[in-house]
Design a protein that fits this description.
It is a single chain. The chain has about 350 residues and is α/β, with parallel strands linked by helices. The chain has 2 domains: about 1-145, Immunoglobulin-like; about 150-345, Rossmann fold, CATH 3.40.50. Helices cover about 30% and strands about 25% of the residues. Strands 1, 2, 3, 4, 5, 6, 7 and 8 form an 8-stranded mixed β-sheet that branches. It has a 6-stranded parallel β-sheet with strand order 11-10-9-12-13-14, with helices on both faces. Residues about 1-10 and about 240-250 have low confidence and may be disordered. It comes from Negadavirga shengliensis. It holds the Pfam family APP1_cat. This is Phosphatase domain-containing protein.
């Protein structure tokens, strides 16, 4: 998959450049994904794509309507070499989209934090062949203290939403035939995340192997199912109509990179990790515990298949330094989290 991406990259890049040069690019859209940080640093990320029309999801949309929406979501082309200007307080920072249309920046901000949510605005710098869809876009920047008590890092597929990630056919059908309002959460998920975050007192970060094309679907799903919102870190993978079925698969090493980013931004914050046994979360979280000793205080793993004693040893060896809970359902996770929070207050 990585090799295919590397081979096709020059062609995708060249096509975008050609369309821009001959004036066939159309309206250009900026999609903002992330804007969060600590008292001194901020990380921001977005993407530049050709504008596409998308209807709002609803419970009444049928499979055909959802498939059309998925086609529109994946048919858009990423646009490289587009300059973006960020304005935040007294700062003006320029970024440039890469071959996948992605732009990102981690920068210092000496401005004193007065609120955990502040606004920045961004615009696409006008150039020949570039016609922005909007003049300016505003985004909330979420600021969390680097020494905050603890935060939550959670997987998404088969952790909060039923995805059948280990079964390619089922996962593909769910991803294209359902929308944010018709995808099913696991029972009790909303209650669990509100409990473990203590009603939003602790930040929740979502890390997934899904691609950025699904960002709006995930955001709408969290909102509709009353699951605490938070920064969503997805995979920087070029997924289009040809390889849409591969979304969420492949190498999950990027999840470790995203978790390392969070660990470096919040150097004194400890974390609760939440995932499932369907793919590589136990092995990934074991690596995180080893790499950042003393930073992980609890791990919750939903068992997707039957009990696997040998595999469970991967995480269980860290007890009692790390509280490890293998649960078959959210009810068991809630019971453990209730005791976990109580023990932290004693």
């Amino acid at each position: 998959m990585v090799l295919l991406r590397w081979i096709t990259s020059p062609f995708r890049y060249g096509l975008a450049v050609l369309k821009r040069k001959i004036g066939k690019l159309g309206l250009v859209r900026m999609e903002l994904f992330l804007a969060f940080g600590n008292e001194k640093e901020i990380f921001i990320k977005g993407r530049i794509v050709e504008a596409y029309r998308q209807s709002r999801p609803s419970e009444n949309k049928n499979a055909f309507q959802n498939i059309i929406a998925a086609i529109r979501r994946y048919a858009g082309s990423s646009i490289p070499d587009v300059r973006v200007m960020l304005e935040y307080h007294h700062l003006r920072i320029e970024m440039v989209s890469d071959e996948e249309g992605i732009f990102e920046k981690r920068f210092d901000d000496p401005h004193p934090v007065t609120n955990n949510k502040e606004k920045a605005r961004l615009n696409i710098i006008k150039e020949p062949g570039i016609q922005p869809e909007n003049e300016w876009i505003e985004i909330d920047i979420l600021r969390y203290a680097s020494d905050h008590d603890f935060g939550i890092i959670s997987d998404i597929d088969d952790t909060i939403v039923v995805s059948h990630a280990t079964k390619v056919g089922k996962k593909f059908w769910l991803s294209v035939s359902k929308n944010a309002y018709t995808r099913r959460p696991f029972p009790g998920v909303s209650e669990f995340y509100h409990l473990i975050s203590e009603g939003g007192a602790h930040p929740v970060f979502y890390v997934s192997s899904s691609d950025w094309n699904l960002y709006d679907l995930i955001m709408d799903f969290l909102r509709y199912r009353n699951i605490p919102s938070g920064p969503i870190l997805l995979k920087d993978l070029h997924v289009n109509l040809r390889n849409i079925w591969q979304s969420g698969g492949g190498d999950h090493g990027h999840k470790l990179d995203k978790i390392c980013l969070l660990m470096s931004l919040y150097k004194e914050m400890k974390f609760v990790l939440v995932g499932d046994s369907g793919q590589h979360d136990p092995e990934l979280y074991s690596e995180v515990i080893q790499k950042f000793r003393g930073r992980v205080i609890a791990v919750y793993i939903r068992r997707i298949d039957r009990e696997d004693k040998e595999r469970e040893k991967i995480l269980n060896r860290y007890q009692p330094e790390v509280q490890v809970a293998w649960v078959k359902n959210t009810k068991e996770a809630i019971q453990h989290a209730t005791q976990f929070l109580l023990s932290k207050k004693q």
